Amino acid sequence: MENWKQNKAVFWVTALPGVVxxxxxxxxxxxxxxxMSFGEKTSIIDIEITGTLANxxxxxxxxxxxxxxxSIWISVISTAVCLAIAYPVAFGICFSPARWxxxxxxxxxxxxxxxxxxxxxALIAVFRTRGTLNFTLEWFWNLAFxxxxxxxxxxxxxxxxxxxxxxxxxxxxxxxxxLPLYATIERLDRSYLEASLDLGASQWRTFxxxxxxxxxxxxxxxxxxxxxxxxxxxxxxxxxGGTNAIMIGNVIARQFKQANDWPFxxxxxxxxxxxxxxxxxxxxxxxxxxxxxxxx
Amino acid sequence: MARRKSKRGPLDYAKSPWLIGFGLITFxxxxxxxxxxxxxxxxxxKRNIVWRGFTTKYYAxxxxxxxxxxxxxNSITIAVMCTMVATIIGTATALWLWRFRFxxxxxxxxxxxxxxxxxxxxxxxxxxxxxxxxGSWMRGxxxxxxxxxxxxxxxxxxxxxxxxxxxxxxxxxFSVWPLNLGAITAAHIAxxxxxxxxxxxxxxxxxxxxxxxxxxDLGASEWxxxxxxxxxxxxxxxxxxxxxxxxxxxxxxxxxxxxAGPETxxxxxxxxxxxxRGVSPDINAASTVLIVITLVxxxxxxxxxxxxxxxx
Amino acid sequence: xxxxxxxxxxRRSVLKGSGAAFIGLTMMPRFAMSEEEKKLNxxxxxxxxxxxxxxxxxxxxxxxxxMDLYADNAELFAKLKEGNPGYDVIxxxxxxxxxxxxxxxxxELDKSKIPNEANIADAFKDATFDPGRKHTVxxxxxxxxxxxRKSKVKDASSWSAVLDSTDxxxxxxxxxxxxxxxxxxxxxxxxxxxSVVPAEMKAAEELLIKGKKNVKVYADDNGQDLLASGEVxxxxxxxGDVIQVMGEDDDLSYSVPKEGSLLWQDCVxxxxxxxxxxxxxxxxNYLLDADAGVHIADTIQYATANAAAKAKMDxxxxxxxxxxPPDEVIAKCEASLYSEEKTKLRNESWTRIQAA
Lengths: 296, 312, 356
Fold this sequence. Notes:
Helix content of chain B: over 70%
Strand order of the largest sheet of chain A: 2-3
CATH superfamily of the domain at 66-137 and 173-305 in chain B: MetI-like
CATH topology of the domain at 66-137 and 173-305 in chain B: MetI-like fold
Number of helices of chain B: 14
Radius of gyration of chain B: 25 Å
Number of helices of chain A: 14
Oligomer: heterotrimer
Distance between the termini of chain B: 29 Å
Largest interface: A-B, 109 and 115 residues
């Protein structure tokens, strides 16, 4: 890495666009909301920044901690499933003939250019009681004469539970996992794999001892890109979840809408951010110790 | 052991039946809902539970809905503008963080990650608050740019326009398409370029800096080195990042919802308001059109840049 | 040296003098009173206007109406709270009208421009949430109740069918609007919809937590779709939504439970900062027109507050107890009253219910 003083012109040219844009269109608005998290409602629409910590202390009530905890484990499972599916897919794309790769990559992204809500409703149409999946199963059931042997087909109740939320999350966030994985696996130096195989390691051993460590930067970026937005998600639990499906994103959204309590909503959002930042800092710290040094 | 039995080479993973099978199943799962959506756009039934015959009338209905078409065009315009700017800014940011060592670097990295970390709804509200305050400041005759203009005209009498005229010209200038989408686009760029930066930087992590050194030693300028050595290497990352930012922008609902006004609706915002009572077939039709348009555009774009593409 | 400050001072004073004029100008609508561009931005609920109403209005007045949709009052309020992004006409529900008046977000109507006001039914000429009807005119009104599938459900005459019974476990949807759900639960328990008495609130919360295992989903605004697609057999919903799907499926029905329910009223208003107030008044006047009202009521199947329109409607509409409940049912219903405290307590309670 270069010291920035060695090449100030390039330093500023690369630094300024991002910094300025972020400052104008992100940090300034964010600062307004951050201030709000230390504020109190003085009337229906006015908020006065009083420096109170009441909003934060309210966030630590058991009910909110419970919901945060639930959001974390739902996101962890969804991220893991996402990774387990996305890795082989990205791997397969990278090892396919070069002219196929852009097309395959496009095929992965394409569903995601359909609006999130429409996609989620499409999922509902597949999984609901009178949905495609149940109709198909019933058809097979009747085809196998099981209706004569066992009795009429009982449709599966697949929606409105935590499983449906996880399926929905995985479905929604898949490309955010595939893309960074693709970017790293694609530049994997294959001679390492050959060396490992030549030295007698099995394919699995090669995969876990060579491929995975070498593509770790992609895995980590993928996890960050998927896990963190999942934490704040509220549309998917809203549409696919049952009566228990509330996640912290739903609570935050409600503060900004129904409850009209922006200071509390701001405090909850920032609490979520503080937690993620602590986790990122911890990862950077461990990474630095292990001499990883992976991006953002 | 396995590789002796099979004819394929040890690294021909693309020919592994397991991987092919897995990929195939994934694609089927990914596309099943989409296929159903496309099928339903031709279904002659409002409720979309069972098949009631083929029709294209919902395409006509979607096409004849000016609000839907406008939202559609707005969405694509915003996504294209956002992708172009966000890819450039994101790539620059990735280069910056990858190349330089500087004081407070970890702080800068942390701040750059903020848009990824923040709950969407919070950013949406933040942008709403800022634009509404900033907007009245911009348009106010006693504040901001309008005030400066007035001051300027006041000391330069030949063009003595009154405040009202200036305000009108100013407002009309910023209500001309696509400038009126500027506010939404700016917000989209702000939340999508850090994603580009993450992806590009993951790619850059594997770059061998000796190539860069060699290029410079051979007399190439900073720009030539970037253009001929660094950029080709990071191109897959840049493309992946561009796709990501396009996806993010096209799909964003929460942040846009708070920024959009009656003149600046986007497709997701429109859809959101329409699907709360179930997806109607014309929405499915519009989505099908959207997917076809983006598919064709991307294939054309890929074709166009194919000759200059270097193989990795 | 001495000349310059003098010049500056004089320029300043000129500006100061014209400053007042500037303010006057910016506070005026964008174009002068007589000449407003022929446009109108209408922010409305989904499926809440006649199929051709906007086109008919355009034919009659030359004004082009652009309609955006919102999903609930909270969304409307959140969007207008920091300033009106350019809407001319909105249709909030009574408690939100009260809230918006308190927050100074609504324009006072110029009734001289709304002669069709005379068509409003007597019962709606005044309103407790908008004394003297200074800011609003009534649009539609209705109840909350239970939509159900007749072949599967025998008795939906009491809230117990959805709140306190295991007969249809897993086949029930409640609304996602916690404030209203808690409100009717309070009514079921014999209290007021608007109660903020801690013990009563607590009892309602406990009942809802206890009943959770029977409920399939808290549906935001699609209970009627779940009902129509056979996903649930009982849905807590707004009357008009259920009546719209009843038209497609004879097996569905609607009831207002005997314990009483929520009575609501949606009102047409002009938000502060509307760019086209003249057109907005013309549009409001048009909505109150008898024939326009007939067309709207015919399409959306909600109870109109337009007496002239109601008089022209057929028996199928006016005699439908789902649309116009009998007086004894209405007598038991309550309107939701606006209170910041209630909103806060109900939302906290709703979070606890969902997290339990």
